[in-house]
Design a protein that fits this description.
5-stranded mixed beta sheet
Length: about 130
């Protein structure tokens, strides 16, 4: 599995600037990251799929997010709550967000990353972890 750890500004330069579509999607993804940070409980954000490929016009951004072990969506409201509802996040931001809490354990997180690192033809694609 090809996993890179990069700061958000470097991620923007590398993946979010080359085409108008990438610029738009990066701005949407940055909004989602801001909302995740607003919870105070985001631990890790991984980006996978076509946005971290060389495709000039990806359809969306795929996130896999790890939250603190005690995180719950029960008291979330408004836009922060929408981020954790996959359909709402996809419609509003163009981001497919899959999330877990770190309570599932590192081995399960690694298993999920392994699945997300493969395309439909089972070829490996990069995964980028954004430094939070």
């Amino acid at each position: 599995m090809n996993l890179q750890l990069v700061p958000l500004d470097e991620f923007a330069e590398q993946y979010g600037a080359s085409t108008p579509r990438r610029q738009f999607l990066f701005n949407q993804a940055r909004s989602v990251i801001s909302l995740l940070r607003a919870t105070g409980q985001v631990k890790r954000v991984f980006v996978f799929g076509s946005f971290v490929s060389e495709k000039p016009n990806p359809n969306d951004v795929d996130f896999f997010v790890v939250m603190t072990a005690d995180f719950t969506t029960f008291h979330l409201k408004g836009r922060i709550a929408e981020v954790f509802q996959n359909e709402a996040c996809r419609i509003r931001y163009g981001v497919d967000l899959f999330w877990v809490t770190e309570a599932i354990g590192e081995s399960h997180i690694q298993d999920m990353l392994e699945v997300f690192s493969r395309d439909r033809q089972q070829q490996y694609n990069p995964i980028v972890e954004i430094q939070i």
